[in-house]
């Protein structure tokens, strides 16, 4: 399962949205069951390749120790009250590629960062969608699945405005292309 800030809720609150959320949860569960059945029907002898790389400069620690001893999340660019980030962003990328006999190859990509670059109240697959599209376009005949890693303390917000990062409307595209490009360079060979 991936994590997104622009997807439907999975918990069911009391009130008028409960029916819609229950329907969405059922659709998700049914889709997962259908995907599992299709995967079982599509099994083939495979060779497994493993690759590793780094996607640098696209994820940043979001918790900071402030000079007054407090801890803040996303304290803003060039905030003079920042003492230092609490930790380091994990920029490692993992790839497992299944080269299947007589079937399309599958690339399973793992990278860790909150997919919350788009915001708003519309449903979006954010940068994981761009990763999938980039990998499938660059590695012809390969289907891609992204598994978001478990580093909830990183996101796309850079507090150092001296670093060049794309504007908010293009951040998801930039992140997806950096990760997808790194996958193409380290395609499990």
Write structural notes for this entry.
- It is a single chain.
- This protein has 189 residues and is α+β, with helices and mostly antiparallel strands.
- The protein has three helices and nine strands, in the order αβββββββαββα.
- It has helices at residues 18-41, 126-138, 171-185, and strands at residues 46-54, 60-61, 63-66, 71-73, 82-85, 92-100, 105-111, 142-148, 154-155.
- The strands form three sheets. Strands 1-6-7-8 form a four-stranded mixed sheet, covered by helices on one side. Strands 4-3-5 form a three-stranded antiparallel sheet, with no helix packed on it.
- A hairpin with a 4-residue loop joins strand 3 (63-66) and strand 4 (71-73).
- The longest helix is centred in the N-terminal third of the chain and has 24 residues, at 18-41.
Structure summary:
This protein has 189 residues and is of the alpha+beta class. The protein contains 3 helices and 9 strands; from the N terminus they run αβββββββαββα.
Mean residue pLDDT: 88
The main β sheet shows up as: 4 strands, mixed
Helix content: 25-40%
- Ranges with pLDDT <50 over ≥5 residues? none
């Amino acid at each position: 399962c991936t994590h997104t800030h622009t997807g439907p809720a999975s918990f069911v609150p009391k009130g008028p949205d409960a029916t819609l959320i229950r329907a969405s949860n059922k659709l998700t569960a049914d889709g997962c069951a259908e995907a599992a059945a299709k995967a079982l029907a599509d099994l083939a002898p495979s060779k497994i390749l493993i690759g590793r790389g780094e996607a640098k400069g696209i994820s940043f620690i979001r918790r900071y120790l402030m000079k007054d001893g407090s801890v803040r999340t996303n304290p803003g660019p060039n905030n003079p009250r920042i003492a230092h980030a609490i930790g380091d962003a994990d920029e490692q990328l993992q790839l497992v590629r299944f080269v299947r006999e007589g079937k399309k190859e599958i690339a399973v990509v793992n990278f860790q960062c909150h997919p919350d670059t788009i915001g708003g109240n519309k449903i979006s697959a954010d940068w994981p969608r761009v990763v999938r599209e980039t990998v499938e376009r660059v590695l012809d005949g390969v289907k891609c699945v992204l598994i978001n890693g478990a580093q909830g303390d990183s996101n796309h917000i850079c507090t150092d405005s001296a670093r060049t990062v794309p504007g908010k409307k293009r951040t998801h595209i930039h992140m997806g292309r950096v990760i997808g490009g790194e996958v193409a360079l380290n395609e499990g060979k």
